Amino acid sequence: QLQLVESGGGLVQPGGSLRLSCAVSGFSLDYYAVGWFRQAPGKQRELVASINRGGGINYADSVKGRFTISREDVNNAVYLHMTTLKPEDTGVYYCNGRSQTNSDYWGQGTRVTVSA
Fold it and tell me: Closest by alpha carbon to 38, among 99, 100, 95?
């Protein structure tokens, strides 16, 4: 079973940057589509960015041009590089792995707070 552990969250000022990491174990990452989701206080979890098994990348409109998702299958890791952060980027960020049978696996989340 796929296991995911996020790290890299924290408190950052508006306009700052953070790099989130997701360490994957339990199975080879190249069998999965991967993505980052976030959940702001009082809101539903939403997709931030994803990479499918073929390497196709999708971003939420709100983060296009500011966030970059990447995966390193050889290291079984997924990253989210976030720049020009805004207060509305605040939330808990979750790493997701989706199998070929559409089973979803989640990490425990890492909190990002963007505030002056």
Answer: 95
* Separation between Cα atoms, residue 18 and residue 68, nearest integer Å: 11
CA distance 22 to 78: 5
Contact 23, 108 (CB under 8 A): no
Rg of the chain over all Cα atoms, to the nearest angstrom: 13
| Local structure of residue 96 (DSSP, 8 states) | E
pLDDT tens digits, 32-56: 899 999 999 999 999 999 999 888 9
**Can you list the positions of beta strands (E) in the chain?**
3-7, 10-12, 18-25, 33-39, 46-51, 57-59, 67-72, 77-82, 91-98, 104-106, 110-114
